Amino acid sequence: MPENYELTAAPLPRIVAPDLPYRPPRPKFYRPRIGLIGCGGIADYHLQAAKAQEVEVAAFYNPSIEKARNRRDSYFPQGHVCASVEELLMYPGVEVVDIATHADVRGPLIEAALRAGKHVLSQKPFTLDLAEGRRLVLLARDLGLCLAVNQNGRWAPYFSYLLQAASSGLLGEMQTLELTMNWDHTWIQGTAFEQMPHLLLQDFAIHWFDIAATVFADRAVGRICCNTMRLPGETISAPLAASAFVEFEGGLSTLAFNGYSKLGQREQFVAVGSRGTLRGAGPLCGIRSLALFTSQGEAEIGLNGAWFPDGFTGALGELLCAIEEGREPSHSAANNLRSLEIVFAAMRSAAEPCPASPATVR
Fold this sequence. Notes:
Elements: E1 33-37, H1 43-52, E2 56-61, H2 65-75, E3 80-81, H3 85-89, E4 94-99, H4 106-115, E5 119-123, H5 130-143, E6 147-150, H6 157-167, E7 174-182, H7 199-204, H8 206-215, E8 221-229, E9 241-248, E10 251-258, E11 266-273, E12 276-282, E13 289-294, E14 297-302, H9 307-325, H10 333-351
Parallel strand pairs: 1-2, 1-4, 2-3, 4-5, 5-6, 7-10
Antiparallel strand pairs: 7-11, 8-9, 9-10, 11-12, 12-13, 13-14
Helix pairs in contact: 1-9, 4-5, 5-10, 8-10
């Protein structure tokens, strides 16, 4: 290699950043009453989303009545605290049910809500069994109802802009997507989350697997190679480090997670297509600006909003828009099955360990 060889490219001219619709969608007129099942910590963001979308949460249910009252009093004091799921599903005027419970009880709740004639927004993952998930998808379609999944990362400002850039063709044919992050996830110590053998993949990394699946849209998924490990000094029983390679037809996504990082916590991504590159870096779940590179030049993109609460506002807004427009939401359960297949294949690959594919998992 010549001594003066440098891995650098000629500077690009500055261009104006493309104005893409990355902010949370809002329905034009549809403002239904909502029933909330599950009033734990994550419910705060569901309720903030309802406030932002100017819809009323009219009914609340939680096994702990006190938690339901607290959420009701903090956000919608005129709402009704229900003594049972059945009471909530029969509450006058409720058209949409928002399910924010733990994953292991979501399936029966989704089915009950659909059979009661309600549209449903389920916290992720909406099922832990793909066969059950497919059955719920068919049930919703048979009943003419929307079943959507709160994959709220899709409306985090930086990921929303990425998805718009990919789907609009701004980046050309997508080639690779790199997602890396290091942060401190030890807050789970002593909670039920610590007992999940694949906590990092199933409850956390699922957001980033979903972004990869959405960036590569309808591309066939090939092999998935995943590894998890406990890091030196780690006191959490669940592994807090993972890496994964997901092959798509003509593309590749690489993901790396370190949930035992005390200092210098950071998230970054690089998306490369045949006509452009988009990259961003910043605090975990808080990237505020992006850099776009195309043949026309380079643009710096300042973003408005934040994942919390805009991700939840977008997930609710897309469901309401879909109901208003009589179409399937982009984050429908049917769409989300593909992301779940990737996550479950990653879990199998890490457990065996060996490459896995969506066709091998349930």
